[in-house]
Amino acid sequence: MYAIYYMGRVNFSVAVPGLGEEQGLDATRIGTLAAGFFWIYSFSAVPVGRLADRIGARLLVGLGMVGSGLMNVLFILTIQNFALSMVFWSANGIFQAMGWTPLMGQ
């Protein structure tokens, strides 16, 4: 399960050349996307851990996996709209935090 989560996070690194060449995003916009994900992921860890204590890690990990997959698809579909793609990629950070943080408390 964690390997699937990992693919939903690191695929951005693989996509960076295409984001620049095919989508015309400059380094600043690509860095902004990466930073948005990083900060949201970082700040989500504590609240997600507390939520896992309340509702259970298994449910939260499952919801996070589905949510991360959905955010990856929405990111791809909205890449022409930078602001919207930024929202979806940053939201992926919340769902990614649902994978690691609850498992660490078990």
The helix content, as a percent range, equals over 70%
Q: What is the total tally of β strands?
A: 0
Question: How many distinct helices?
Answer: 4
Uncertain runs are none
> How do the helices and strands follow one another from N- to C-terminus?
HHHH
The class by helix and strand makeup works out as mainly alpha
Shape: elongated
Question: Major β-sheet, in short?
Answer: none
Q: What's the overall average pLDDT, rounded? A: 90
Instruction: Classify the beta-strand content into a percent band.
Output: under 5%
Tell me the span between the first and last alpha carbons. Answer: 15 Å
Description:
By secondary structure, the protein is mainly alpha-helical. 88% of the residues lie in helices and 0% in strands. It has four helices and no strands. The chain has helices spanning 2-21, 27-55, 57-77, 82-104. Helix 1 runs antiparallel to helix 4 and helix 3 packs antiparallel against helix 4. The chain is elongated and about 45 Å long. The mean pLDDT is 90.
